[in-house]
Amino acid sequence: MPKLYIETTIPSFYFNQRPEPEMVARGNWTRKWWDEHRHEYELVTSDAVLEELRNGDHPRREEKLTLLREVPVLSVTSEVADIAETYIKRFVMPDDPGGDAVHLALASYHACDVLLTWNCQHLANFRKLDHIRRVNVLLDLHVPALLTPLELLGESELL
Questions:
Q1: Is the pTM of this model over 0.90?
Q2: Buried-most residue among 39, 72, 105, 154 (CB within 10 A)?
Q3: How many Cα atoms sit within 13 Å of 100 on the Cβ side?
Q4: Domains of the chain
Q5: CA-closest candidate to residue 26, choices 17, 38, 36
Q6: Across the chain, how many H-helices and E-strands are there?
Q7: Do the beta carbons of residue 106 and residue 75 sit within 8 Å?
Q8: Separation between Cα atoms, residue 6 and residue 16, nearest integer Å
Q9: pLDDT at position 137, please?
Q10: Secondary structure in 3-state letters for 28-68
Q11: Residue 159's CB: how many other CB atoms inside 10 A?
């Protein structure tokens, strides 16, 4: 069963309340994938995701946290923090030690098959994939697929 890392945007879009059509679509695809397909994967998340969800002022915080209640939680170890720091130093990820670099480091270090996200600027971005791959090869790390829930839905489910 493929191992899939759940990044913060997944529970956020599951409970999306933004009215823009593209945000509504992302929420619909996220809920469809979560409700109908998550059992096809070994899900993991992290302390970093839970902390992001606990912090800040955003709607439905408790529901987002509850969605992940049964998902095993990976800890940010010193090795993971070092990998995240390398991503930042090598300009793979922005200088936000608790953010995208940590998510990528966790998914890579724990050899997740997929890092599931709606962050298409820094993570699920084809233009960044080669850079990520080169750095992970240098670090002798697995390169997870960086995907959105839409990419995990079958074509017939999109109609």
A1: yes
A2: 105
A3: 19
A4: 3-153 (3.40.50.1010)
A5: 17
A6: 8, 5
A7: no
A8: 16
A9: 93
A10: HHHHHHHHHHHHHCEEEEEHHHHHHHHCCCCCCHHHHHHHC
A11: 4
Say how far apart CA 108 and CA 157 lie, in whole Å.
29
Tokens of 81: 């923090």
Q: What is the pLDDT of residues 8-40, one digit of tens each?
A: 999 999 999 899 999 999 999 999 999 999 999
pLDDT of residue 15: 96
**1: Cα separation from own chain's centroid:** 18
- The answer to whether 105 and 123 have CB atoms below 8 angstroms apart is no
Angle between helix 100-109 and helix 47-54 axes, rounded to 10 deg: 150
User: How many angstroms separate the CA atoms of 148 and 117, rounded?
Assistant: 5
Which two tokens mark 119? Answer: 């962050």
